[in-house]
Amino acid sequence: MIEAAAAKRVHIIQGEYKVVDDPDVVLSTILGSCVAACLRDPVAGVGGMNHFLLPGSGGAMGSGGDATRYGVHLMELLINGLLKKGARRDRLEAKIFGGAKTIASFSNVGEQNAAFAMEFLRDEGIQVVGSSTGGDHGRKLEYWPVSGRARQYPLTGAETQRTVALEQRPVRPAPKPVDNSIEFF
Fold it and tell me: Which partner for 12 in 29, 96, 117, 135 could form a disulfide, CB atoms 3.0-4.6 Å apart?
């Protein structure tokens, strides 16, 4: 049983989201100032997680920026992914994690991330059934999307600083096709 569960672990990194309907899958991530929104429809038996770096949209879509860093883009992808797998918007429930203040001299982007997620869900009419945000240490998160179970582990100061370094790295954009290349579907 433990080996099977380990084989169905999916790690979500900054700028990603995942939607699943397998009750044996556990989604995991490591958060500093980033936020992970965990949503599910308990009736449809489907759920998912995203991991975003910055609140709002930042004008990413219109300015050629990387939209995967922003909360609006990833929240919409997650919700649409759930709806495509049979979830209904009126049954969605959410848990929000992350948003730590990991560097004292920086503006509190973690607090802004958490506030953005809560406001977005409120505006969308999605009930927040749990949250663990803020603080000054990162956290490791495990989420079982079908059952809604979540477990977090606080990170030490050194682990938090490694997470901060990873969060500050740019997200690699998807490779663009080279001119004269052939794209197979």
Answer: 29
